[in-house]
């Protein structure tokens, strides 16, 4: 797994609108919360996504782009995003290549891992917890506060 202080591995992917995006589109402009989750519309993943949504006003204070990653296809992401009114980007990683780049694998289920990346593209925080999905946004906010203090 990539670790704190590493340069964030770059990737391109298809987002929930069917558009190609690249991580490099955001580096140099925004902090990034990149979170990997197992599957759209499952109980834990829904709680995690909704926690990011419910803390959106706090997140916006940190000039952040939030990107959720799972192997679900674009249509599944689109339905998930609309159903729960998610204000952030979901990207499809059907072959698990992005997950592999970050080492965000799990044992039985795909891993639930959040990376906080600063504007320079450096990984500043890593949080891994399969069974506490709501804590991911709390950890991300804590890391973003640290980044802001050190700017």
UniProtKB/TrEMBL annotation:
Recorded GO MF terms: thioredoxin peroxidase activity
Question: Which residues act catalytically here?
Answer: 45
One Pfam family from the record: AhpC-TSA
Using the record, list the residue span of the signal peptide; answer none if the entry has no such feature: none
Keywords tagged on the record: Antioxidant, Disulfide bond, Oxidoreductase, Peroxidase, Redox-active center
* EC category: oxidoreductase
Disulfide bond as a keyword? yes
**What is this protein's name?**
thioredoxin-dependent peroxiredoxin
Q: Which InterPro entries match?
A: AhpC/TSA (IPR000866), Peroxiredoxin_AhpC-typ (IPR024706), Peroxiredoxin_BCP/PrxQ (IPR050924), Thioredoxin-like_sf (IPR036249), Thioredoxin_domain (IPR013766)
- Description of how the protein assembles with itself and partners: Monomer.
Question: What does the record give as EC number?
Answer: 1.11.1.24
Catalysed transformations (reactions) = a hydroperoxide + [thioredoxin]-dithiol = an alcohol + [thioredoxin]-disulfide + H2O
Recorded hits in PROSITE patterns, A to Z, give:
THIOREDOXIN_2
Give the family per the record: Belongs to the peroxiredoxin family. BCP/PrxQ subfamily.
Domain Thioredoxin intervals: 2-149
Q: Does rRNA processing appear among the keywords? A: no
Name one cellular component (GO) term. Answer: cytoplasm
Entry's Gene Ontology BP terms = cell redox homeostasis; cellular response to oxidative stress
